[in-house]
Write a structure and sequence with these properties.
Helix 10 packs across helix 13 and helix 16 crosses helix 18. The relative contact order is 0.09. Helices cover about 50% and strands about 15% of the residues. It has about 375 residues and is an alpha/beta fold.
């Protein structure tokens, strides 16, 4: 298990200015926290219009954190009942939905009211229910529903979060992802299908951030059933593509122009001389020592003028900090392997492995995926 990594994300505290700034910030936060913990402060601030608005917003934010599990389970129930699919063609009456979902009207109505508050469904004055803004987005992206359904494994592990954090032992989630326990003989079919369907959410975002080469060979390492590689070839049919991954004998590999090579990216020889190698949502699944070793192996396998593309959610993404350190931090801990990393940490690993021209490309959805490119030489994608 890795040592604590927070210190590696912080700037060195060598200068007097930084030390003074840190001490000042600590004193300001201590003063703020003392006020926020004072009953007298709360009694007084509600009588000040501006202060009351801030207090209400903070109370709502805190309650949303407290109720987060209930919200996620409301979404899970909607997915299990295929509620959004039933409403896809238009609004329906409660009695009609009750028959389709096979749920009594009273229970279904309670779920619909909860889902409406979360903008998943909408209610109309004629008594019918339809898709809400977020429900329509769910129905448009099957990968989200697949992720919601598989979260049942994570929720089992989070029943006792303190016990979970005592050590990184076997969990429900690590059993779902056998490679998290560094097992290569587990059932890869389930997670390969999940990664494939969820890949549709981010493939366009990644490729929109890149300028694809006009020709050459693309190697997608740990590319599963080839969803991302297929997206690459759809964008540029002049390219050829290989997927390198553990492919179970029972897998129904699509018959496409993609070449599939069975292998373990940490131990087996990687295909060589690729113009571009991609790692899509791979690094954050593995601990630092394995990431360092993998990046060095990829550097050595890459074409002398080739480019590495790394795409995954990252820690400390502005506006999406909770997605990195809260969601993925706890998820990967439960999985038993990996951690969310900042773009700066990934860049440092790349330079250590021998890469140059390390550049973060602009992602339209950085909360979902950020994109970093690096070159074996001075070339770029």
């Amino acid at each position: 298990m890795d040592a604590p990594i927070l210190e590696s994300r912080l700037p060195p505290q060598s200068s007097g200015w930084r030390q003074w700034k840190t001490q000042l910030l600590q004193r300001l936060h201590q003063w703020r926290n003392k006020l926020l913990m004072s009953p007298e402060f709360h009694r007084r601030i509600v009588h000040i219009p501006f202060g009351a608005a801030i207090a209400r917003r903070r109370a709502t934010e805190l309650h949303n954190i407290t109720a987060g599990f209930v919200y996620s389970q409301t979404l899970s129930a909607c997915v299990s009942l295929r509620l959004f699919h039933h409403l896809r063609s238009g609004p329906l009456a409660l009695s009609t939905l009750s028959g389709l979902c096979q749920l009594p009207c009273a229970g279904l109505e309670r779920l619909l009211l909860a889902a409406r508050s979360l903008r998943l469904v909408a209610y109309y004055d004629d008594g019918r229910w339809g898709l809400g803004e977020l429900g329509a987005a769910m129905e448009a992206n099957p990968g989200i529903a697949a992720m919601v359904e598989h979260h049942q494994h994570l929720y089992r592990d989070l029943i006792d979060p303190v016990a979970l954090l005592q050590s990184r032992g076997p969990t429900h989630l690590s059993a779902y992802w056998p490679y998290a326990r560094q097992q290569t003989d587990g059932d890869t079919q389930a997670y390969s299908q999940l990664m494939s369907v969820s890949q549709q959410l981010i493939a366009d975002t990644i490729l929109n951030a890149l300028t694809l080469p006009k020709s050459g060979h693309w190697l997608d390492v740990a590319g599963g059933e080839g969803a991302f590689a297929q997206a690459v070839l759809t964008r540029n049919p002049a390219l050829t593509a290989t997927v390198f991954d553990l492919i179970p004998e029972s897998a129904d590999v699509p018959n496409t122009q993609i070449h599939f090579v069975n292998g373990n990216m940490f131990t087996d020889p990687l295909p060589t001389n690729a113009t571009v190698i991609s790692l899509v949502r791979i690094l954050h699944d593995h601990d630092d020592d394995r990431v360092r070793a993998l990046l060095k192996r990829i550097h050595d396998a890459l074409d002398p003028n080739g480019t590495l593309v790394i795409a995954e959610p990252m820690a400390q993404t502005p506006g999406a900090e909770a997605i990195g350190d809260a969601y993925f931090g706890m998820y990967l801990w439960a999985m038993g392997s990996g951690r969310p990393r900042t773009a700066a940490e990934i860049a440092a690993f790349l330079e250590e492995a021998g890469f140059s021209s390390v550049t973060e490309q602009r992602s339209a959805m950085p909360c979902l995926v950020r994109v970093i490119t690096a070159s074996r030489s001075e070339s770029n994608v």
